[in-house]
Write a structure and sequence with these properties.
This protein has about 400 residues and is of the alpha/beta class. It contains twelve helices and 18 strands. Helix 10 crosses helix 11. It is elongated and about 95 Å long. Bound molecules: cytidine-5'-triphosphate and magnesium ion.
Length: about 400
């Protein structure tokens, strides 16, 4: 007869959510975090604890990539591991995982894949603390002062000393958890976590100290916090670029400059509308992103830009930067020339340029050159632009 020394444990890692609040365009568990997926980080935490059966609940349609992640995390370990498809709600996903728990498992842990950086020690501590009659959750003391609201009116203070913020994994005696899930299904009740569902069935739940690292990745700021904790997370440096442009006065029609038309002013000559302010901005942005220069993307080899106005250039440039992973922080432009006089239309020019750049902050200043040089003689204008861009996280 074999005597089992340690209870047999299964862990259900729920990863079937869509990650709406993260808004990364993919299920949250599959979003990249420092070169691996959120799920893979969570699995590393699990596989760093004692041996258990691992069941990952995958988003429908993503079972194969989840299985690949699981196989990778399990390489060289040979733990019992499987993937099941999740449901509409977290509770349904846990229920799907429960159905795959081995008959012999005495303890079941339920863990959010979204708590990607949960330390193995926390998984281990929960596994070690579950008893045959009580569940265990890790939780942290609440640090904020809490208020109860009635609409936007503060109705009452809340004593935070009796409150704790629940984390996962949450561990339960298997038979009682099965019964609690069956009861919730019968009653058609939804709970926000397994401890609430277990407690609603009359099961006692105790609390152990959680970990700051076990926070749930919910919003883009949480993902950035996880990156920082992983050490890759020196916030990505912003980048700057500079661009200049010079155009001579000449040609027919009205002047176009800084994205607006200047009726009655002498036009500037050029392949497009000669808008030296827009062209300097484009060069500054392209250079900040390391994407070459205006001649390469909009030069005479691109006849579609002949006669084009600033917005055509700027909108395209903003899109190129977005595709390369950059958001535009701010742009500062200085115009040198006798005419036109910017002061009366500065705000209008800034608004037009900003609108073409997706709302980025743009400021325009102007100066004359005391009669010196080609700008001072009124032969043309010179513009310098500096752009600051930020890698998107
Ligand atoms: N989860 C799940 N099945 C669902 C909903 C959630 O397995 N139908 C999982 C998530 O994958 C996550 C955990 O439950 O690991 C906690 O849920 P949450 O943080 O709310 O994740 P999402 O539901 O994906 O995010 P959101 O609510 O922003 O859409
Ligand atoms: Mg959710």
């Amino acid at each position: 007869m074999t005597v089992q020394q340690t209870p047999s444990i299964a862990i259900i890692v729920v990863a079937a959510g869509s990650g709406t609040r993260l808004g990364a365009g993919a299920p949250k568990a599959l979003v990249a975090l420092d070169g691996r997926s959120v799920l893979r980080h969570a699995l590393d935490g699990v596989f760093g604890a004692r041996r258990m059966q691992v069941i990952v609940v995958a988003p429908a349609g993503h079972e194969q990539s989840v299985a690949d992640e699981l196989a990778d995390a399990n390489r060289g370990r040979g733990w019992r591991a499987s993937v099941v498809t999740g449901g509409e709600t977290r509770q349904q996903s846990v229920a799907a995982g429960l159905a795959a728990v081995d008959r012999g498992a005495e303890i079941v842990l339920v863990h959010d894949a979204a708590r990607a950086l949960t330390p193995p020690a926390q998984v281990e501590a929960v596994a070690a603390s579950v008893t045959s009659d009580a569940g265990v959750i890790p939780a942290l003391a609440v640090v904020d002062t809490l208020k109860r609201l009635d609409g936007d009116v503060v109705a009452a203070a809340v004593d935070r000393s009796t409150l704790a913020a629940a984390q996962t994994p949450q561990g339960f005696p298997r038979a009682a958890l099965d019964a609690a899930y069956a009861r919730a299904l019968d009653a058609g009740e939804e709970y926000t976590d397994d401890a609430a569902l277990f407690a609603a069935a009359g099961g006692p739940v105790r609390c152990i100290t959680g970990s700051e690292r076990a926070f749930k990745i919910t919003t883009p700021a949480d993902l950035q916090r996880a990156r920082m904790l992983l050490g890759s997370g020196n916030p990505p440096l912003p980048r700057i670029g500079v661009g200049t442009d010079v155009h001579a006065f000449g040609g027919e029609g009205d002047l176009w400059l800084a994205g607006i038309e200047w009726p009655g002013e002498q036009p500037l000559s050029g392949h497009s509308d000669g808008d030296a302010v827009a062209h300097a901005i484009v060069d500054a942005l392209l250079s900040a992103a390391g994407l070459g220069d205006i001649g390469q993307h909009f030069g005479t080899a691109h006849p579609e830009y002949a006669g084009a106005h600033a917005d055509a250039f700027l909108v395209r440039t903003e899109r190129m930067l977005a595709e390369a992973g950059f958001a535009i922080g701010s742009v500062s432009v200085q115009f040198q020339g006798n005419r036109p006089r910017f002061s009366a239309r500065r705000a209008e020019a800034e608004a037009a340029l900003s609108a073409a750049l997706g709302g980025a902050s743009v400021s325009v200043s102007a100066t004359t050159t005391d009669g010196l040089g080609f700008t001072g003689r009124g032969e043309g204008v010179a513009v310098t632009a500096v752009a600051l861009i930020v890698p998107r996280t």
